[in-house]
From TrEMBL:
Alphabetical keyword list: Aminotransferase, Pyridoxal phosphate, Signal, Transferase
Keyword Iron on entry: no
Protein name, as recorded: 4-aminobutyrate aminotransferase / (S)-3-amino-2-methylpropionate transaminase
Keyword Glycosyltransferase: no
Listed InterPro entries: 4NH2But_aminotransferase_bac, Aminotrans_3, Aminotrans_3_PPA_site, Class-III_PLP-dep_AT, PyrdxlP-dep_Trfase, PyrdxlP-dep_Trfase_major, PyrdxlP-dep_Trfase_small
SUPFAM superfamilies (alphabetical): PLP-dependent transferases
One BP annotation, GO: gamma-aminobutyric acid metabolic process
PANTHER family: AMINOTRANSFERASE CLASS III, LEUCINE_METHIONINE RACEMASE
Highest taxon of the lineage: Bacteria
Molecular functions (GO terms): 4-aminobutyrate:2-oxoglutarate transaminase activity; identical protein binding; pyridoxal phosphate binding
Ranges that cross the membrane: none
Cofactor(s) needed: pyridoxal 5'-phosphate
Length: 428
């Protein structure tokens, strides 16, 4: 088959540069936490296809369920002829989601589509139009969700203007000078200056900020948001697209705070590698739109529904929630060791929740400026040595861990050893 270089040249000629790839190699096959490129090089995968593979590449139960479904039918469109896997997945999600009340679930195909639909549902249910999102948020690349995404470059550059009635509040990031008190003050000010709370349909927040840097929302912040929403009749939307399905050690990251949202957006690791997403919410809120107001040709594809049911079953029966918590502790301890040994004062912060973990690189002890160049170099060296890593953060200087929760201890240790060697390369 073709070499990485040949495929890269074809890709550059045929695919727009706007779709960037982190790794300049092409996949040939993958299994659990390992991937092989077209030249036969093997990689340990700490990126999991951007937090999609909590159950690993090609989990046997996921593959078997998808294949069994393919032998029955692969598409009818739920809007033409409905099928049980859609209903069964909705029932399962209604049962798993926090909240002691009746719930309903809409299935769509991508995370951005889930967020778009959460906004539509919130607007229809409240009769209001305003949406409040946070700095550093990532909610997608469609125009509404891009408007809600709180980072200019590379996402929002050159493609505005964005839909109106989207407001921005500061995300609490104490280390960068924004305490919970500051963030709430900012929200209060926003509601006085621009965002009339009586016109706000929803506040949307990632319970652990994902693309923005793997920052958990402090419990007191989440509680305050719930109280503000209750006071003003605003719906609280938890965007669990990256943090959900065991990444943080619970089914949904917001469970760590005890706060119950009105709507939850899900995608990624819900289906172990198949494109499916959803909005879970209070039944009466979910029913706000009239028949025909929700949907799409492909929404809740039956093969993806079958895969999701199997992935959820695997997370449950294989103890992956507890595994996530244990992996988080392991990564914290090993990153602290590696930092002290190989890069003193350059690994500034190790943070996150469960196995949704990131480490931030800085220039030096004194100024502690974000060091995106070092982060990039570590990623490039790691790839050469056989480890797939991905960055995140407002300054591109955080390395995030999205390794399959099914990875063996041996593979995790192998990846960590490659990481340390790559770090040494980058600093040499
Ligand atoms: N919300 C969050 C929190 C995400 O992490 C992402 C994807 N990184 C999205 C929404 C958008 O999902 P998709 O890429 O499937 O549209």
């Amino acid at each position: 088959s073709a070499s990485n270089a040949v495929l890269l040249a074809r890709r550059e000629a045929a695919v727009p540069r706007g779709v960037a790839s982190a790794a300049p190699v092409f996949a040939a096959r993958a299994e659990n936490a390992e991937l092989w490129d077209v030249e036969g090089n093997r990689y340990v995968d700490f990126a999991g296809g951007i937090a999609v593979l909590n159950t690993g590449h090609r989990h046997p139960k996921v593959i078997a369920a998808a294949k069994a479904q393919e032998d029955l039918y692969t598409h009818t469109s739920f809007q033409v002829v409905p099928y049980e896997p859609y209903v069964a997945l909705a029932e399962k999600l209604n049962e798993l989601a926090p909240g002691d009340f009746a719930k309903k679930t809409l299935l769509v195909t991508t995370g951005a589509e889930a967020v778009e639909n959460a906004v539509k549902i919130a607007r229809a249910a409240t009769g209001r139009s305003g949406i409040i999102a946070f700095s550093g948020a990532y909610h997608g690349r469609t125009l509404m969700t891009l408007g809600m995404t709180g980072k200019v470059s590379p996402y929002k550059k050159d493609v505005g203007p964005f839909p109106s009635d989207i407001f921005r509040a500061p995300f609490p990031d104490a280390r960068n000078g924004v305490t919970v008190e500051d963030a709430l003050k900012g929200l209060e000010t926003l509601m006085l200056t621009d965002a009339d709370p009586a016109r706000i349909a929803a506040i949307i927040i990632e319970p652990v900020l994902g693309e923005g840097g793997y920052l958990p929302v402090p419990t007191e912040m989440m509680q305050a948001l719930r109280a503000i929403c209750d006071t003003h009749g605003i719906l609280l939307i938890a965007d669990e697209i990256q943090a959900g399905f065991g990444r943080t050690g619970t089914w949904f990251a917001i469970e760590h705070t005890g706060v119950v949202p009105d709507l939850i957006t899900v995608a990624k690791s819900m289906a172990g590698g198949y494109p499916i997403a959803g909005v879970i919410g209070r039944a009466e809120v979910m029913d706000a739109l009239q028949p025909g107001g929700l949907g799409g040709t492909y929404g809740g594809n039956p093969v993806a529904c079958a895969a999701a049911l199997a992935a959820i079953e695997a997370i449950d029966s294989e103890g992956l929630l507890a595994r996530s918590t244990a992996l988080g502790e392991k990564f914290r301890a090993r990153f602290a060791e590696i930092g002290a040994r190989t890069a003193p004062y350059r690994m500034w912060d190790i943070r996150g929740q469960g196995a949704m973990l990131a480490v931030e690189f800085v220039t030096d002890f004194e100024t502690a400026m974000p060091d995106a160049a070092l982060t990039k170099s570590v990623i490039a060296h790691a790839l050469k040595r056989g480890l797939i890593l991905l960055a995140c953060g407002m300054h591109g200087n955080a390395l995030r861990i999205m390794v399959p929760l099914t990875a063996s201890d041996a593979i995790i240790e192998e990846g960590l050893a490659i990481f340390e060697a790559a770090l040494a390369d980058a600093l040499a």
